[in-house]
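User: For my dataset I need records formatted as: sequence, then structure tokens, nothing else. Please produce one.
Assistant:
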Amino acid sequence: MIIDTHSQLWTKEALETLPKEMAASYRKAFKDLRIPTIEDTIKDMDEAGVDKAVIVAIDAETTYKYKVSNELIADTVKLYPDRLIGFASVDPHKGFVAIEELKKAVTELGLRGLKLIPHLIEMNSNDRAIYPLYELAQELGIPVLLHTGTQFHTGTKLKYCRPIDLDEVAVDFPDLKIIAAHFGFPWYWETIAVAQRNPNVFFNIAGWAPKHIPKDVISYINGPLKTKALLGSDYPLLSRVRIMKEIDELDLKDGVRELLCIENPKRVLGIK
């Protein structure tokens, strides 16, 4: 059971509030980018041999008026419940409202994780305003997926996306599963250090063509962090077909591909 732990819902309905300058920056960075239907998503999974994929909501409503709602994610998952896993997103600026939205997303809508994008909500991941959400996620037993490292949103700031900030969160919430998306490039040594010292911290390779992943990161995936690395695509920014092909071309040790693509994602997502 190959599991993609990080992909986007980029249907027309999901992109209704995406700021135009952000859309333009994506097109500049990813030349062949298009708007796929949900059927295109499933087809890409089938062709890549990927059994399940996480799709994420986005809530940066306070700062950018950008929102891919939890309800839309839940409705999309219902179309392919055996293939898709939904992650909620809430805007920490909304305080108590955000807490109630997360409760509803998990207990009523059936979503199974929380996605936060620090540079869009303009908060560092260790901002105390987010702590009530971490506490609730820990109580609910859901993982939190946070963007770390560089990004291509015009006008946003990288200072919010340092992986080192996750160390404080991991220490303060030891039972909370934390996923550092995109392995924090260019600060991947921070990601490696934080993941190596905290049992509850993981990282994914989403948004990267595997052949371009730094050799030092591959070395740790092959070695001391082989149980901490997760498959991720960031589809449609990259196709899963390309990612799986290039993973097979990496010089991975025996059993590491299975950990990266199957066993580690199952463990983090609670899939038996």
